[in-house]
Each structure stands twice: as structure tokens, then as C-alpha cells.
Amino acid sequence: MQQIRDNFERMAKLSDDDWNIFSSKLIRREFSKKKPILETGHVENYLSFIEKGFVRYYIPREDNDLTFAFVFDGEFTSGYDSFITRQPANYTIEALADTVLWCISYNDLQDIYAETKIGNTIGRLASEGLFLQKSKRELSLLNDSAEQRYRNLFTEQPQLIQKIPQKYLASYIGITPQALSRIRKRIC
């Protein structure tokens, strides 16, 4: 749990009282590789911090799933749009390795916002960070070639290249596995 506090304190200083209130609400959850954390059609009930492992977000399709995000240990994960609207998600979040999450429920988070001095600040800063990541990805999909998107992954997120199966990487950058293979041959 110290990893979570350290992450928060990069955004804002936490008092011991605020941390004790927050940490008392956390639930540890474990998922085996390939197990869903959130399934399409279900409401997200948790905001989670990945202690160990990594996950992928995708839209299930009969022929090829559409992968649109990866989240690694030391980061927050959630079907956040479903979490805040209380509406079912139209995508799935799946563990790509054995994964340990520290989770806080929607209702408990609302209590944290009401009971602590720093809760709203952390919530705002975390939301702003998620928004900036999403905006960067959307702009890359609109402005960059597939090769440039792959190069960006290679320099900005090398853990993706090392840990993620090629078919998921290809889907993430919006191309077929065969096209990704050609790009990799061209730049290596």
C-alpha cells in the first residue's frame, strides 16, 4: 500500500489521518492471467491501483478485438467512464498477467471526498492525468502514421513492446499484425 501513498504524494501531501481513512477502505483483489476485471455490459464499481501485473482495455469483436489501452503496475486503472456515470461499460478490461489490484469502491470514494481535506484534490489531479493520456492517444491516432505510432510506443512505453503480444500491439496502433510485422522489419 505504500506504493499507492507514494503515488498520491507525487500529486499532493497527505496527512497521516487522511491516508488512514483512505487506506482503511482499500480492498485487495487478485486476477489470473486472461481473467476479466470488468466485462462489457457491467458497471465499474472500483477505482483500482495496480500493485503487480498489467491489463488491457478492449472492445470485444467476433473477428478481432479492438485494443485501446494498456495499464501497468504502479498506475491506476478503472472503467472510469462507467465508474463515474454508473452506466454499463461497452468494453472489457482483462488481466494480461497475474495481477494484484488495490481497489476502492465508488461509495467509499464518495465518502473519502466528503471526509478528507485532500480527497477532492487527488481525485481532480488523477482525473486530469487520465484525460491527458487519453487526449495524447487520440491525437496520435489522428495525426501520426502507423509507423510513427509504433516508434512512439518503442521510445515512450518500451514495456509494451516487451510484454504485450504482437496482435494486441497491432490492434492498439490500429493496424493488422502483418502490417506491424512489416513495420518492425523496416525499422530494425
From TrEMBL:
Organism of provenance:
Flavobacterium soyae
The record's annotation in PROSITE patterns points to:
CNMP_BINDING_3
**Residue span, Cyclic nucleotide-binding domain:** 10-112
| Organism domain of life | Bacteria
Coiled coil regions, renumbered to chain: none
Q: Spell out the protein name for this chain.
A: Crp/Fnr family transcriptional regulator
